[in-house]
Specification:
A hairpin with a 7-residue loop joins strand 3 and strand 4. It contains 5 helices and 6 strands, in the order ααββββαββαα. It starts with 8 loop residues before the first helix and ends with a helix. The radius of gyration is 27 Å and the shape is elongated. By secondary structure, the chain is α+β, with helices and mostly antiparallel strands. A 6-stranded antiparallel beta sheet has the order 1-2-3-4-6-5. Helix 1 packs across helix 2 and helix 2 packs across helix 4. The chain folds into 2 domains: 49 residues; 116 residues, Aspartate Aminotransferase, domain 1, CATH 3.90.1150.30.
Length: 179
């Protein structure tokens, strides 16, 4: 068995210098990640607040903007395009989607998640306003036509109910706290 050599003084200095450089680089990367995270959080918060003011002006004649205005007031909501339509998320689950002339049906509508038994009751009460949407209807979702004289209080209430069915508990606590 061969004896192990001890590194020379210059080799030890070189190794220590490399180690110091690695530590500095790691510290710089960690600081950069922290700064980036802060910027991202600030970017997410600021546009939502500005968007609420801007959307309030635009929303009066545009149903999609009205829906966005209603939903933007709730915590942990997000809008993404899914299957070609603006879709709204509460946490990690969808609770509403907006459709304008979906597959040529001629309707401007929002489809939203509804509690058990809600779909049938709403459709029976007002079949001109409410309908069973394709694809999601069998899962209890309800379609709300956004044409003509729309009662936006009813729309907001149904959207909130759908949101409450999927939102994380912490978001619901935050929503209830703000009321």
């Amino acid at each position: 068995m061969a004896a192990r050599k001890t590194p020379s003084a210059p080799a030890r200095k070189k190794a220590a210098a490399k180690k110091a450089v690695r530590k500095k680089t790691a510290a710089k990367k960690a600081a950069a990640r922290k700064t980036a995270a802060k910027k991202t959080a600030a970017k997410k918060a600021a546009p939502k607040q500005a968007a609420r003011k801007k959307s309030a002006r635009k929303a009066r004649g545009n149903p999609l903007e009205r829906v966005r205005e209603i939903i933007a007031a709730w915590p942990e909501t997000d809008e993404r395009i899914s299957h070609g339509a603006p879709t709204f998320w509460g946490g990690k689950k969808t609770f509403a989607t907006f459709h304008a002339n979906h597959h040529g049906d001629g309707r401007i509508a929002v489809w939203c998640k509804a509690g058990p038994g809600m779909q049938e009751g709403l459709i029976d009460a007002d079949p001109e306003r409410f309908f069973r949407p394709p694809y999601l209807g069998p899962s209890g979702w309800v379609g709300i036509r956004l044409e003509g004289a729309v009662d936006w209080g009813v729309v907001a209430g149904l959207l909130e109910e759908g949101y409450r069915l999927v939102a994380p508990k912490r978001a619901l606590a935050q929503l209830d706290e703000g009321r």
